Amino acid sequence: MDKNYDHKKYEADIYQKWEESGAFTPPAGKDVEENNKTFAVIMPPPNANDPLHVGHAAFVTIEDILIRFHRMLGEATLWLPGTDHAGIETQFVFEKKLAKEGKSRFDFDRDTLYKMIWEYVAKNSDVAVDQMKKLGASADWSRQKFTLDENIVDLVLETFIELNKRGLVYKVERLVNFCTKCGTAYSELEVEYEEKQDKIYTIDYGNGIKVATTRPETLLGDVAVAVNPGDNRYKNLIGTELDLPLMDRKIPVIGDSNVDMEFGTGAVKVTPSHDKADWEMAERAGMDLIDICSKYTVIGENGKMNQNAGKYAGTSVANAREEVLKDLGEKVVEIKDITHNVGTCYRCHRVIEPMPKSQFFIKVRGMAQKALDAMDKGEFSVMGSGHDKILRHWLTNLRDWNVSRQIVWGIRMPVWYPPTASQSGGQAQDYVIQKESPGEGWVQETDTFDTWFSSGQWPFVTLKTAKEGDFEKYYPTSVMETAYDILPFWVMRMLMLGIEMTGQVPFKTVYLHGLVRDEKGQKMSKSKGNVINPLELSEKYGTDALRMALVMSTAPGVDSATGEGKVRGMRNFANKIWNAARFVKDLSSQISDISGDGFRVKPGMTEVKDEEFNKKLKEIVEEMTRLLDENRVGLVAENIHNEFWHWFCDKQIEANKNSQISNQILIDGFRAFLIMLHPFVPFVTEAVWQEVFPNEGLLINQPWPK
Predict the structure, then answer these.
(1) The whole model's pTM is what?
(2) Helices H, strands E: what count in the chain?
(3) pLDDT tens, 590-646?
(4) Secondary structure of residue 198 in the 3-state scheme
(5) Degrees (nearest 5) of the Cα angle 52, 409, 116?
(6) Which of 251, 368, 379, 697 has the highest count of CB atoms within 10 angstroms of its CB?
(7) Residue 273 and residue 168: Cα distance in Å, rounded?
(8) In terms of DSSP H, where are the helices of 465-542?
(9) DSSP conformational letter for 327
(10) Which CATH number goes with the domain that contains 658?
């Protein structure tokens, strides 16, 4: 054996041997024996178009550790991989590419733009998969899925059609969160709130009423001023009318008990088309919201003032604000600085514009309750530092889900309109929901599904379209492992849709890993210059070093610190394994048989420490087995690292040198440690196995020690 372990010499060759051996591919569900225990993990699908970041490397490592462990236990172990078309995220990246070329999405018709994005994704689709293989992912690539695979799309459409049959789908004109840059509506979950410094303007509306607002430009769409009926300052004005500044129309003063008498002036402008609270206030007042939407929506989807804004039409929101303030003149009686939370697009971070749109919604209350019931019955558990309580909060307070997205890249909704109908209509008779066109002249809805609608079905649509019997044998899956920050986006929706469509939870355990931060515990960001590239570190120090650094001493739901220094330190661990192997291999030449059978002491061995060695090793095996069976990955990594380095190498190898334990017992112990270490550091352990036990096949196929 070479003096030092050179990962570059071994990793690619070893991975190829694993793949060719068929070790990654469990039997099809129909071929799994009745009494054979199954273990299944459906991989969270990374963006098909993007390279992996350190968070992806974390999930690949954790899931691969669990998969290799259960495979060695002799279970039918399936790790089904896939990639995600990633809807708005991919289209957003593609539009940035177009912008660099001096082009825009508006330069192309729908079909052309879709085809261009498809070709772009196809060109880069192997990037993520190749990188996962470099990280040692022992996934069954023969079952690999893509969210836009034809058979996957068919099942996604069938789900929507079935939900409609169950009365859970409806279309309505409602205020939605709209990003004028991305050109699409979002659900509540996709809005990120950022603290911003702003100004609040107090405007005199006449009749002794002044209102404070951070958005004077929306004044153009006001339909009322609201006061609290219990406010003695204004209660006599309820029912009267005011002249709306800058606009040639009158608006009423209405009473609403939700108005906070202590905030600002105690009077608020009511602009239903551009504020969620105002929309709800108008509903309570019995106003005609359809009429309001058509007449008093003053900001368009392009982010500019529209024809309802009068002379300000065509100007940007920012410029309209300046012009409105200028034209109001002395009616602006006060300006103050304010710090407040503003809703922004989770993708491009532009300020979200609430605006009315006719959208498709899914009723979620019943589905959420089924998920809560399953939680209460213990049908699934959540590992992750209190995130079970967070999940319960979301399920308890969830509002109906807007699944319409105004983008091209995605699964087009199976909604059809008759030749004479308008797509903007919200009445049930204006459309039908089915896969194929009902007849000549019918027009298909241009909106696509929210990406989370298709990925929310991922566990059951992948298994139903994989190999015969997979769904019946491997569903519900064993573990859903993902980052805690997509708990409400993805995990919650998988639970709701999985239970609704299959009658069973989609997974028995939710393992939420924390965010990977830099060595100082700071969040990684390009602006800070502290982002680490996992593939670069893997190339420099070896995949095993990266994997150990990512899981060492971690706990579910808790952020961890990882940087180049930690990875470099774990390279020393790989070398420790290699050096121990060199010593053990030398021992093998001194005895005739190194095949061993567990922890047996060979007849005639009289070394006083052998029995003590076996007892301790058995305890280590039992503890590692128990903890891995409980998915305590970070704790096992720490324990096995310490036991191997300090107990086996520092003490037992020295004991062997001093003739206190036998050669055979040390070799048997080394064999057991290689197997236990393999899920964590698969490449160096496989390389060592081939050197020390060359006639015993691949380490990946060895049974777990007992």
Answers:
(1) 0.87
(2) 23, 25
(3) 664 444 443 333 444 445 689 999 999 999 999 999 999 999 999 999 999 999 999
(4) strand
(5) 85
(6) 368
(7) 26
(8) 470-474, 492-502, 534-541
(9) H
(10) 1.10.730.10
